[in-house]
């Protein structure tokens, strides 16, 4: 029993993970119903039901596909999205890039529950003069040169060339996905406000370079916490995030720009708030078929914040604070089933004064974004979102509660750009 479980576990480890790449892939056969036979199999980490993107250096992005059948050295893939049929040729070499299960359209996901009988091509092989001779793929003669590894400047140069690849960056940005979303219902605790929230998110499905963008506006009808009168306000948030994956097997780079502007009653707190992180790092703690990712990140953020302050005579003045925030992020996403997923994003950003270099342990600019995602159709999603925020400056600068909770229901639509 334990032997059988061990074999099954070893197969699950070999499965093609999101963003994992296999190079030098060839099409061996083209079968009916958009099925192709590739020269990669279980020995290369491919299992049935794997989801991937096929691309080539010659023709670029070719198709998305699902693995229907696999043996030790070959696999059969159903191409379900082929934007450019001329991108396929048995003369090209391809790259397989693993994709997350959530990217499979609902109509195509049904293929994973079916068994596909594909007749494999039988070829007669000439046994040669000695059919019992054992051949090896090792070199006939091993020299000292074969044992030499690049060191010093050569190794650094090779690492830079692999990390900063202009051609690969251009190819990775070709397949870009936009998500439009709106929240017909949003309620937050800080001012008993009911809001309409809308915006967009964008991101590419990439093998190495990943660009994420987000812009959001929120219009709110609320009860003023000071005068108890009903007023309308608006908040704006934006983010640009750039990731270079695969610096090592478990490490990626992280660059980040955050913008936030929020108005409560007559006070803009903050009026403008920028957090800029040129470079940070993400440690990939765990990934599997059900856990799309579990990551821990650190990035130093230069923090500039302009806030309006109300004086005793009712007039408004602006105050500006700037310093360094140490950004710690814990993010994970797990899939409950084909249509339901759970996602959580926790940010803790303690503030450090650049003049005294003192770290303020109570000024954390903390936020936790929890999301339950329901896939209604191929590109249509329904989300429940719960956000907890804690900002010391709301209390010290604007006499507002320093914590806030937001409950919202989102409707989201994804499409490729």
From the spread of the alpha carbons, the general shape counts as elongated
CATH class of the largest domain: Mainly Beta
Order of helices and strands: HEEEEEEEHHHEEEEEEEEEEEEEEHE
Distance between the termini: 49 Å
What is the count of distinct domains?
A: 2
Largest sheet: 12 strands, antiparallel, barrel
| Corresponding CATH superfamily of the largest domain | Autotransporter beta-domain
Question: Count the helices. How many?
Answer: 5
Low-confidence runs = 1-13, 130-140, 144-148
Percent helix among the residues?
Answer: 10-25%
Mean pLDDT: 79
DSSP E strands, number:
22
CATH architectural label of the largest domain: Beta Barrel
From the alpha carbons, calculate the radius of gyration and give it in angstroms.
26 Å
Structural class: mainly beta
Give the strand content.
over 45%
Question: What is CATH's topology name of the largest domain?
Answer: Lipocalin
Q: Care to give the gist of this entry?
A:
By secondary structure, this protein is mainly beta. It has helices spanning 2-14, 106-109, 152-163, 166-172, 392-398; strands at residues 21-25, 27-31, 35-38, 51-56, 60-70, 75-81, 94-98, 176-188, 193-204, 209-223, 230-248, 251-264, 267-268, 272-286, 291-310, 316-335, 340-348, 351-352, 359-360, 366-375, 380-390, 403-416.
């Amino acid at each position: 029993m334990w032997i059988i479980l061990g074999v099954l576990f070893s197969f699950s480890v070999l499965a093609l993970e999101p963003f994992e790449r296999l190079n030098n892939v060839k099409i061996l056969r083209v079968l009916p119903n958009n099925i192709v036979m590739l020269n990669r199999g279980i020995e290369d980490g491919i299992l049935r039901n794997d989801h991937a993107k096929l691309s080539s250096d010659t023709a670029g992005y070719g198709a998305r596909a699902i693995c229907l059948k696999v043996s030790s050295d070959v696999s059969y893939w159903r191409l379900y999205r082929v934007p450019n049929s001329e991108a396929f040729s048995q003369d090209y070499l391809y790259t397989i890039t693993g994709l997350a299960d959530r990217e499979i359209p609902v109509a195509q996901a049904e293929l994973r529950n079916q068994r596909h009988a594909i007749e494999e091509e039988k070829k007669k092989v000439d046994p040669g003069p000695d059919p019992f001779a054992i051949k090896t793929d090792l070199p006939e003669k091993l020299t000292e040169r074969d044992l030499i590894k690049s060191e010093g400047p050569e190794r650094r140069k090779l690492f830079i060339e692999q990390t900063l690849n202009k051609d690969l960056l251009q190819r990775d940005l070709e397949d870009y996905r936009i998500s439009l979303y709106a929240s017909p219902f949003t309620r937050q605790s800080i001012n008993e406000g009911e809001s309409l929230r809308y915006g967009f998110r964008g991101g590419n499905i990439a093998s190495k370079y990943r660009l994420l963008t987000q812009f959001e506006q929120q219009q709110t009808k609320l009860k003023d916490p000071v005068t108890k009168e009903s007023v309308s306000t608006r908040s704006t948030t934006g983010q640009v995030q750039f990731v270079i994956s695969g610096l090592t097997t478990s490490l990626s780079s992280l660059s980040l720009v955050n913008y936030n502007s929020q108005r409560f009653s007559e006070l803009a707190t903050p009026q403008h708030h920028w957090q800029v992180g040129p470079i940070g790092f993400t440690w990939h703690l765990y990934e599997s078929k059900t856990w799309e990712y579990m990551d821990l990140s650190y990035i130093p953020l230069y923090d500039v914040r302009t806030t309006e302050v109300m004086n005793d005579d009712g007039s408004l003045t602006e105050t500006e604070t700037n310093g360094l925030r140490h950004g710690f992020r814990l993010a994970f996403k797990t899939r409950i089933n084909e249509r339901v997923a759970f996602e959580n994003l926790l940010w803790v950003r303690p503030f450090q004064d650049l003049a005294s270099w003192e770290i303020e342990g109570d000024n954390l600019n903390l936020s936790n974004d929890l999301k339950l995602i329901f896939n209604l159709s191929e590109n249509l999603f329904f989300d429940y979102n719960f956000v907890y925020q804690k900002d010391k400056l709301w209390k010290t600068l604007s006499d507002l509660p320093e914590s806030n909770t937001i409950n919202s229901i989102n409707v989201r639509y994804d499409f490729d750009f």
